[in-house]
Amino acid sequence: MARSTSWYARDAAPGIILLGATALSFLLNNSFAGDAFRALLDADISIPLGDFTANTTLAKFIKNALMAVFFLYVGLELKRECIEGPFRNPREAALPAMGALGGMAAPALIYLAIAAFLHPAGGPEYARGWAIPTATDIAFAIGVLSLLGSRVPSGLRLFLLALAIADDLGAILVIAVFYSASVSLAASIAAASIFIALMAMNRLGVTRLWPYVAGGVALWVAMAGSGVSPTLAGVLTALAVPMRRPDGGSPLIDAEHALKGPVQLGVMPVFALAVAGVAVEGPGLAAALAHPVSLGVAFGLLVGKPLGIVAFTWAGAMVLKQKPPCAWPHLVGVALIAGVGFTMSLFVGALAFPDHPDLAAPVRFGVIGGSFLSAAVGLLLLNVVLPRGRAPDPRTSLSADEDLAESRGVLQDND
């Protein structure tokens, strides 16, 4: 059956909607409705969970609950890629994984050099944001690359997809290790017990999805009280969802496909609407743009990402004796586009400085500015170096590339 060609099914749609949500967030924050909009985000809400009621604000609900759904989707994608996708073959996974490692290390070092070491007054407070420029927004980055259409070789698109997936795995580990509060032993034991029960269901052959959904909600509640970011409950739940049923069907892929639209067209834009905008006024705008945190994040994304990805990919190709996934100018261009951090970077920024609302504006300007410049420079470079007049490639969508990645691997099509 032919794939949908509706506008919202195209690769660029999530990025366009995210841009619209970001613009709307800035508009609301800086209009006559700004106070009402911020009051809405700070409004108290109660969520009944059986005999337990969770009291929170709308903004925290979006950050902790809706983003848990986002991480569930990311976790499902990661598991699929590791079992039946390109990461099932360690040799195929090594090169994009090396690139992702460099794409995390170099931005972190550049951020620290600008935001902390070259601005001693910030000290350890600014240093907590080192992971903000290390993330790549998969949907946004692929959407940007899709603007070049059939001129993009499928091998290059697949390399960016694999790189971003490995990057997401790194971001999940960073959040778990470095951005957890003081841990409650009792709640952690409860969370561990629920996760073990979910994995036991998998081993016992439970393939219906609703028990995993129920267990995931319980795991989220336990982790919310443990001090670990409850969004990681989504990833842990995804790890327990079975890949295959006895009839050959896939509960995991069913769940991933069911979540793709709501996450990319709903959860991510709502998150951007809630956290991307900030109220700015004359001198305050200039101070936010020139803030060490803003500059560290922006230069980490714009300079650190491509520098680290290209350097580590080159080193990996030399050590592993593999040919690069594409021509080097093409790799530089796609490495620049990997500097589109956006959703993941904004999320890490919210975790890094929860007690410093004065740093919200620098973080957001750094993420948005660095992501925009990375996308623009990457597109400009690729527009120059990619050959024109390529025959239309049937694998021009992210969904098609995911199917190809499952069957062939990311480095076997370097046209």
Describe the structure.
The protein has helices at residues 13-29, 34-41, 58-83, 90-117, 123-127, 138-146, 154-178, 185-203, 210-224, 232-240, 251-275, 282-289, 292-320, 328-337, 342-352, 360-385, 398-408; strands at residues 44-49, 52-57. With 415 residues, the chain is mainly α. It has one domain (12-408): Na+/H+ antiporter like domain (Na+/H+ antiporter like fold), CATH 1.20.1530. The chain has a two-stranded antiparallel sheet. A hairpin with a 2-residue loop joins β1 and β2 (52-57). α4 crosses α7 and α8 (185-203) packs antiparallel against α9 (210-224). The two termini are 27 Å apart.
**How many domains is the backbone divided into?**
1
What does the largest sheet look like?
Answer: 2 strands, antiparallel
Order of helices and strands: HHEEHHHHHHHHHHHHHHH
* Strand order across the largest sheet: 1-2
> Helical proportion?
55-70%
CATH superfamily: Na+/H+ antiporter like domain
Number of strands: 2
Task: Detail the topology: elements first, then pairings.
Blueprint: H1 13-29, H2 34-41, E1 44-49, E2 52-57, H3 58-83, H4 90-117, H5 123-127, H6 138-146, H7 154-178, H8 185-203, H9 210-224, H10 232-240, H11 251-275, H12 282-289, H13 292-320, H14 328-337, H15 342-352, H16 360-385, H17 398-408
Antiparallel strand pairs: 1-2
Helix pairs in contact: 1-6, 1-11, 3-7, 3-10, 3-11, 4-7, 4-13, 6-7, 7-17, 8-9, 8-10, 9-10, 11-15, 12-16, 13-14, 13-16, 14-16, 15-16
Descriptors for this entry?
two-stranded antiparallel sheet; 415 residues; Na+/H+ antiporter like fold; 17 helices; 2 strands
